[in-house]
Write a sequence for this structure.
């Protein structure tokens, strides 16, 4: 598999993929135009909130490498390890049947440092 975060990011700032609903958490992977990847976990329900987030990179073989050391709240077992399949815009990780479907395409993501100005400048400079 020859894949890159830039390919998975779409044509704007990035693209967010969400794992199909399985438990009390909502897991998301965001791929950015500059090649970075961000895994984020949120709770569902009345107390819905951000649980943790981890930055990563993806190799051409589809293996995700996470920035370490992890914060104490990070559950390493929850992190996808490798992209093992792709059907159109649906991704599969770790040879599991759970789908990761496109949740949104976004033009900026200020909370993670991708302001509209930074995105335009990055695209102009070819990053």
């Amino acid at each position: 598999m020859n894949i890159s975060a830039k390919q998975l990011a779409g044509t704007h700032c990035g693209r967010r993929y969400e794992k199909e609903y399985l438990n009390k958490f909502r897991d998301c992977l965001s791929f950015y135009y500059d090649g970075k990847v961000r895994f984020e976990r949120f709770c569902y329900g009345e107390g819905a909130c951000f649980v943790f987030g981890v930055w990563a990179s993806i190799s051409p073989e589809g293996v995700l490498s996470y920035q370490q050391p992890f914060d104490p709240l990070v559950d390493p077992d929850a992190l996808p390890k490798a992209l093992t399949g792709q059907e159109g815009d649906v991704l599969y990780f770790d040879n599991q049947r759970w789908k990761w479907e496109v949740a949104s395409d976004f033009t900026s993501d200020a909370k993670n440092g991708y302001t509209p100005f930074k995105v335009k400048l990055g695209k102009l400079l070819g990053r």
